[in-house]
Structures are given as structure tokens and as C-alpha cells.
Request: fold
Amino acid sequence: MSGCRAVVRVPATSANVGVGYDCLGLALSLEATFIFEVADRLSIDGCEERFRGEDNLVWTSYLDACRRLYVRPHRLHITIHSPIPLSGGLGSSSACVVAGIAAAQALNASGFDPKGSLEIATLLEGHPDNVAPAIMGGLVSSFSDGRHTHSLRFEIAECLAFVAIAPPYEVRTADARKVMPQSVPTETAVWQIGHCVAAVHALTTGDAGLLAVSCQDRLHEPYRSQLIADYEPLRRTALAAGAAAYLISGSGSTMLAVCDGRKAAERVACSVTNMVENRVEGLWVRILGTHTTGTTVELG
Reply:
């Protein structure tokens, strides 16, 4: 055993980034901390009572990773400190999955292995768009060849700021998948490919003008936006306040306004928080930057 205690820090993430459906994801400067201590029995603190049982996602991910690593799991005392909202869209579940895998590697094997954790996390999650940036940080484009996950990491321009906007209700991922069309015209596929490449360039160079015209999704947001009751008034308000782009984060209900600089982000955050018409009570709003390091593990 490498140690009896591990502290794992995992950033929040935003999948799809508009036009990068199931491919793109970015890490945000909102970080969950998970403390794992070898114990006589399983106990979980720091989360709602309903998540403290044997079906806790951190714990089940730890067990799954141990099985795949061919190591014997330990009983653990897990403490969770997570500011990531549970309404969905900022990778709260992916953070749990990654944390469990990282703990299995750190406490039972040869130490945290980002590449190995990505392979396991993709198998557990079904796709890498959230787990890849959670592990690697920055902006990540991923695909699977059926055997392995391939992820390309990019640095996001420092001038860009992100306003995370989460209404006080969730959109179930299963419902968000159901509303998606089973097939799309070739014209839509061509549109999406061209806009996705341009969006990546805009995010890495900080070209807010290019970002505004490239983040025009036709594949999933027209359908998923219907599941978010306050999508349209929040979108109109954010864009009117100066956001360069407005995206559904993951499958929602969280949304993301991408802004050219901190001051623009502050205007957007203030505008959506203080809407008079169509005001959303209980709205969670945070100005975030990018998380460049991804998952970290400390032993001791």
C-alpha cells in the first residue's frame, strides 16, 4: 500500500462547449476536494445523507477501479468538500468518478496515473468529454477508437472568463439524451465540424468575435434548451450584457456565458442575477476561470 491517506482535488468541468458535442470539455476554477483515509469500516462525510451509503459514486468508482487494477480495496473514511452544484452541467458526478479512481491508484497501486485513470473513467462514464478535462485540465478534445481514449489538450486564452449560471432545478441526463435526434442531415454535420474547429481556435487565442459566430450549435442545444425553463430569458440577458457566447454546460441545467475579460463577466453575472422580468429565484451564479492542472493527488 502506497499510503493510508490521500487527498484528491478535481476541478469542475463543462462538457460539449457548445459545438463540441460529446467531444469537447473544459476544466473550470471550481475545485472539489476528496479525502480518503483507510479505516475499519466505510463512512462518508461532507455530502447529503442520501449519498452516504454503499451506492455513493465516489465509493463505487473506487471499487470499480480496484477491480480493474487487480488490487484489493480497503474500507475507507471518505470526506467530500464539493462546491460543484448538483443541478447538473458542471461535472459533479465526473469529479466523483475521477476521485474514486485516483484514490484506487494512489492507495493501492503504483500512484496516480492520469492516462490510466482516463481509460478507466471513460469506461465507467461511457464517454470522455467531462472526465478528460477533469483529469488533464484546460480544454480537451477526445475520441475513442473502441479500445483506447485519445485526448488532445489545449490551453485556453487567459483573457476569457466564464459565468456559470445554474437554475435551482436539474435536467436529468437521460432526459437530455432522449430529446436528441437519432440522425442529422449531412448539412448539419458539416456545419458542426466547421464551427467546432473554429470554436477551439477562438478559445485558445481569445478571439471573442470568432467565438460569437462559431458557438452556434445545431446538434443538441436546440433540443436540450427546451428542457431548461429559463434558458431563453437568461440567454437574452447574458448576450445583451456583453457575453460573447452562451452555452448549455453539459446536458444542463447549468449554462455558461463566455466573456471577453473579467469586467464583461461581472456585467453578465450582475445582469442575470438582477433580472426583473423573468427573474429566477435561487439562481446560482459564479464567475470562473480555467483550471490548468486538472486532478492532483497528495499522499500522507
Summary: Residues 186-205 form the longest helix (20 residues). The chain has a mean pLDDT of 95. Residues 60 and 66 are 10 Å apart (CA to CA).
